[in-house]
Design a protein that fits this description.
Strands 1, 2, 3, 4, 5 and 6 form a six-stranded antiparallel beta sheet that branches. It is elongated, with a radius of gyration of 19 Å. β4 and β5 (119-127) form a beta hairpin. The longest helix has 25 residues, at 2-26. It has two domains: 1-29; 45-160, TATA-Binding Protein (2-Layer Sandwich). It has 162 residues and is of the alpha+beta class. It is built from three helices and six strands.
């Protein structure tokens, strides 16, 4: 009896894995791991959206005492046009990234994970007076991101600061 239960469990796992592999192999766009694009993205009174409570988001406009969500803004000396051009160049140089919205003082892009196609939403705005690029990077699905959003912003910072 135990052998039959174990065999059934193994077959179930194999079936799920095969179905998932097939789904990912034939999907050309969104996958079941893409999630729905949030409707709250964009600037409101010059601010990017706040991070939700889950630890899969970083923002340079979060409270600096919130070490889980806060990340330093990216210093940039130059005009807003130059800042947003530098952001666009940096984000387009990243694999699996797509710029979906580019306005004079705002850029929005989606970045997909390689294996499962999870989507992260990445937003930027430039504070001309302070000489800073503010950024927000958040996972659409799940609770944790294992530091992916923070690492992405740091990689973008390195590219922009060159």
């Amino acid at each position: 009896m135990l052998k039959r239960v174990l065999a059934a469990a193994v077959l179930l796992v194999i079936g799920v894995a095969a179905g998932l592999a097939l789904h990912l192999a034939i999907s050309t766009g969104d996958t079941m791991f893409s999630g729905k694009r949030p409707d709250y993205l964009g600037l409101t009174d010059g601010k990017l959206p706040r991070c939700k409570r889950s630890p899969n988001c970083v923002s340079s406009q979060a409270d600096p005492s919130d070490t889980g969500h806060y990340i330093a803004p990216i210093p940039f000396k130059g005009s807003t046009v130059d800042a947003m051009a530098a952001v666009r160049k940096a984000i387009e140089a990243m694999e699996r990234s797509t710029v979906l919205r580019h306005e004079p003082n705002y850029l929005y892009a989606e970045v997909r994970s390689k294996l499962m196609g999870f989507v992260d939403d990445v937003e930027f705005t430039h504070d001309d007076k302070a000489g800073l690029i503010h950024v927000r990077s958040a996972s659409r699905l799940g609770r944790k991101d294992f530091g992916v959003n923070r690492a992405r912003v740091e990689a973008l910072r390195a590219r922009i600061e060159k």
